[in-house]
Amino acid sequence: MIKRHRIISSVLAICLLTTTVGSADVFADSLKDLQNEKNAADIKKKNLDSTIQKKEIQIQEKQAKVDVLVSQIKKLNDKIEETNQNMDRIIAEMNQTQIEIEELQSSIKELEIRIKQRDEVLRERVRVMQVKGNQVSYLDVLLGANSFADFIDRFSAVSTLMDADRKIIQQQEEDIALLEEEKKLVEQKLAEQEERKQKIQALKDELHNKKLEKREVVNQLEKSQEKLSSEKGALEEEYSETVAFSSKLEKKIIAEQNRLAEIARKEQARKHKLQQERLAAEAAAAAANSRSSASSNSSSSSSSNAAPPVSSGSWTKPTTGSFSSGFGWRTHPISKVRKQHRGMDISAPTGTPVVAAGDGVVSYTGSMEGFGNVIMITHSVKGQIMTTVYAHLSSIGTSSGQSVDKGQFIGAVGSTGFSTGPHLHFEVHIGNFSATGPSAVNPLHYVSF
Q1: In this predicted model, which residue has the larger pLDDT, 96 or 140?
Q2: pLDDT class for 358, splitting at 50, 70, 90?
Q3: Position 32 pLDDT exceeds 90
Q4: Average pLDDT taken over every residue of the chain
Q5: Residue 319: predicted pLDDT
Q6: The domain spanning residue 444 has which CATH number?
Q7: 447 in a domain, yes or no?
Q8: Do 331 and 281 sit in the same domain of this protein?
Q9: CA–CA distance, 390 with 326 (Å, rounded to integer)
């Protein structure tokens, strides 16, 4: 009766396992396809990023040419400014000279009027002298005085007339000389104005040519910058589209992982129920044996001698070997760059068995960038979704969608991917696996080594 009960329980377990695993296979195959698509998108994104970086380097290299063009534009701007200043200075000189010319012309008009007036006075004096015989004897005037007082008056009058004549003549000579001088000065200033006009025209021509040259340089600069920016912009747009596509895939992958996590949760509940049934059956068998004083039961487990012993509780050590590198910041042994080590390393010979650290469903198997051959298992532990990662494997002994028990063989230690020697890289994530997020935690919180 007890044997029959055990057989029925085993058959029931196998049926349930077959049904669950078959359902999980559908999700796992879908998840693997999505992951492969995401890997392809990530590779494209990385290639685009590399191309964008190369384009930025080209832009930086061509920046020297851009700097030369900008320098030329600056020099042309300085030359244009200098030409404008020279034009303003010459125009100011011309305006001042024009004022001086107008003042001189006004002065010349006044001189010409005074000279003309004096000329009329002198002409009148000459005419009078001609009427009187062309001679005026000042001595006769003096000798014709009636008294000494009259002589003094006549002498004073004669002296005054003579002085007036001399002064008129002297002023006339001075004004005529000044007139000639100012006329020459006007001619000189007019010549200077003409020379300045020619300079202004030359400066205008030079300014026009410099502006044309500047326009050509600016157009050349704009074309150079527009070409580089357009090429980089096209790459960035494609990169952005790839990132968006990768993000959509990431969401789909998370959804598939959540489905697998739900399967893992149901599998855990199923196993717990089976365990309770098995314990109840064993308790009943033990009671029957006790009454019949039958021989004692013994149980044995078959496992490879090289596999680690299975610990009690939810977790067990994934492989045998020595602890070689812990969780946290370290200098990467290959890149020599300081970065975060998101798991722990267990050094062991190639081929050493690797077992599942806990009950769950395999959510990914295959190759993944620096991980090399990698297995990911989704677990449901007391309602908490968790993911374990087993990397650098030499071989994979399980498949996506397979339900695995704690301590079950899943692969073997190797040195694939970015590795300096055979070892198991083991990670524990709260929730789903994330290559960049803060989901990774120190495995020592869960697994004893």
Answers
A1: 96
A2: very high
A3: no
A4: 74
A5: 95
A6: 2.70.70.10
A7: yes
A8: no
A9: 15
Same domain, 158 and 71: yes
Q: Is residue 381 part of a domain?
A: yes
Q: Which of 241, 264, 293 is the last residue of a domain?
A: 293
Residue 341's domain comprises 308-449
End residue of a domain, out of 293, 328, 362: 293
262 CB burial (10 A radius; 0-12, 13-18, 19+): middle
Is residue 352 domain-shared with residue 289, that is, in the same domain? no
- The conformational region for residue 447 under phi > 0 = left, psi -120 to 50 = alpha, else beta, is beta
CATH assignment at residue 147 = 1.10.287
Query: Which residue in 415, 413, 409, 439 sits closest to 427, CA to CA?
Result: 439
d(Cα 270, Cα 360) in Å, to the nearest integer? 12
Host H or E run for residue 427: strand 423-430
> How far is the C-alpha of 35 from the C-alpha of 28, rounded, in Å?
10
In terms of domains, do 192 and 61 share one? Answer: yes
270-311: pLDDT as tens digits = 777 776 777 767 766 666 665 554 333 433 333 344 678 888
Number of folded domains that form the chain: 2
The whole-model pTM stands at 0.42
Kindly state the tokens that stand for 263. Answer: 């399967």
Residue pair 316/308 in contact (Cβ under 8 Å)? The answer is: yes
- CA–CA gap between residue 313 and residue 439 (Å, rounded): 22
Looking at the fold, whether 98 and 178 belong to one and the same domain comes out as yes
- The residue written with tokens 């939810």 in the block is 314
State the Rg of the chain over Cα.
57
Domain co-membership, 123 together with 247: yes
Task: Give 311-330 pLDDT, tens digit per residue.
Answer: 888 899 999 999 888 887 66
The pair of three-digit structure tokens given for residue 336, joined into one six-digit string? 């020599």
Distances (CA, A) of 239 to 199, 242, 244: 58, 5, 9
Single-letter amino acid code for the residue at 219: N
Q: Which residues contact 425 (CB under 8 A, 6 or more apart)?
A: 343, 344, 345, 371, 389, 390, 391, 392, 419
The answer on 171 and 210 residing in a single domain is yes
Distances (CA, A) of 28 to 306, 364, 402, 443: 30, 7, 8, 25
Q: Is residue 67 part of a domain?
A: yes
Residue 2 has pLDDT above 60, yes or no: no
Q: Are residues 47 and 91 in the same domain?
A: yes
Q: What phi and psi, each to the nearest 5 degrees, are found at residue 227? A: -65, -50
Asked whether the predicted pLDDT for residue 338 surpasses 60, the reply is: yes
